[in-house]
Write a structure and sequence with these properties.
Layout (H helix, E strand, L loop, with lengths): L4 E5 L3 H13 L3 E5 L2 H8 L6 E5 L7 H11 L10 E5 L4 H9 L4 E4 L4 H22 L1
Parallel strand pairs: 1-2, 1-3, 3-4, 4-5
Helix pairs in contact: 2-3
């Protein structure tokens, strides 16, 4: 996972810092933002290998962010940005809706460092498989 660029979006500083510590220990370059607005700004200026995001956030939520990504960067322009969604309120309907909107993986909060790493690796691997099947 070395040198992967990961954008983490969550309004909870503890979650942001935890993700940063775990992912940087694996050699990733981690950018932290606390709002959907900041995430969209960062996605417009830098390419990331993975987006890790919370669902429930003030103002705009994760559903809005997924829709904004697909609207602003259609799949033919930005074919694969794997998205790992985190939530402390997982329901079948929410997870299904997120997957329809383009999420690659889902992880329930709270999670352990090992669970986070496993989910990140799954999301990245799924994206790599999809990319290789398109070429």
């Amino acid at each position: 996972m070395k040198e992967k660029k990961i954008l983490v979006v969550d309004d909870d500083r503890v979650v942001l810092q935890s993700c940063k510590i775990v992912l940087e220990a694996e050699g990733c370059e981690v950018t932290l933002v606390s709002s959907v607005k900041e995430a969209i700004e960062h996605l417009g200026t830098k390419c990331y290998d993975l987006l890790v995001m919370d669902v429930k956030m003030p103002e705009k939520d994760g559903m809005y962010l997924l829709d904004a990504i697909r609207e602003k960067w259609p799949l033919d322009e930005w074919p694969e940005l794997p998205v790992l969604v985190m939530s402390g309120y997982p329901t079948f309907e929410t997870i299904e809706d997120l997957m329809k909107r383009g999420a690659s993986e889902f992880i329930s909060k709270p999670f352990t460092p090992d669970e986070l790493l496993a989910s990140v690796q799954k999301a990245l691997k799924r994206s790599e498989k999809h990319e290789s099947s398109r070429n």
